[in-house]
Amino acid sequence: QVQLVESGGGLVQPGGSLRLSCAASGSIFSFYAMGWYRQAPGEQRELVAGISAGANTNYADSVKGRFTISRDNDQSMVYLQMNSLKPEDTAVYYCNSDRLYSSVVAGTARYWGQGTQVTVSS
Fold this sequence. Notes:
The protein is mostly beta strands and 122 residues long. 5% of the residues lie in helices and 48% in strands. It is built from one helix and eleven strands, in the order E-E-E-E-E-E-E-E-E-H-E-E. It has one helix at residues 101-106; strands at 3-7, 10-12, 18-25, 33-39, 46-51, 57-59, 67-72, 77-82, 91-98, 111-112, 116-120. Strands 2, 4, 5, 6, 9, 10 and 11 form a seven-stranded mixed β-sheet that branches. A four-stranded antiparallel β-sheet has the order 1-3-8-7, with no helix packed on it. A hairpin with a 5-residue loop joins strand 5 (46-51) and strand 6. The relative contact order is 0.31.
């Protein structure tokens, strides 16, 4: 079992930055791939970024160059640094985890957090 708890969301102006954190517990963190998804009102949940156990990364085209995913295996944490935020980045952001990186990227990961709201507005 893996438990995931997100934090760091909030209200930010366009062009601003936020860093989301996801704390994992319950298993050997370094064995697991991790990812960030988001879901805006009326939209489907979409992949933002993923990071494998070996620290390979993938990003949605819409966030490339603006967002960075990273992990700290010693602290069992995964982060999403979000810069140059746009109103269209407004969504609930979810952390997910699975032993298979393909599952994280495909959105079929076994474990999900409860989400944290990010609102980009002036």
